[in-house]
Amino acid sequence: MPIFHPILVASLLLYFLPAFLARKRSDFTAIFVLNLVAGWTFIGWIIALVWALSSEQQRQVAVPAQPAAAPPPASGTSFFCSACGKACEAGARFCTSCGAALPATSR
């Protein structure tokens, strides 16, 4: 009698079929443990098989929306703040970004 009887090998392959089918999934370890621990019960084996064959849900990652960039100011109507470097409208007394006092220009 051979050591690895064909019926024993076929039984082990059938027993671990859910784990084999789930080998490329991210939750393979959980399916394998369920198959190993509860696979001897018919219900545990069915649950592991259904879990292995179910489609893996794609994880939804929320990406914050980028605010639209403000159009560049028209030349001659704006200048840059000496404190923060942001564009300011001509005639403004304070920077709208940092609040620094702007130099007196022709207003």
UniProtKB/TrEMBL annotation:
Give the species this sequence originates from: Candidatus Acidiferrum panamense
Residues crossing the lipid bilayer are: 31-53
Q: What is this protein called?
A: Superinfection immunity protein
Taxonomy, superkingdom: Bacteria
Print the keywords alphabetically.
Answer: Membrane, Transmembrane, Transmembrane helix
Record InterPro entries? Phage_imm (IPR016410), Zinc_ribbon_dom (IPR026870)
Q: Which residues form the Zinc-ribbon domain?
A: 80-102
A Pfam family annotated for this UniProt entry:
Imm_superinfect
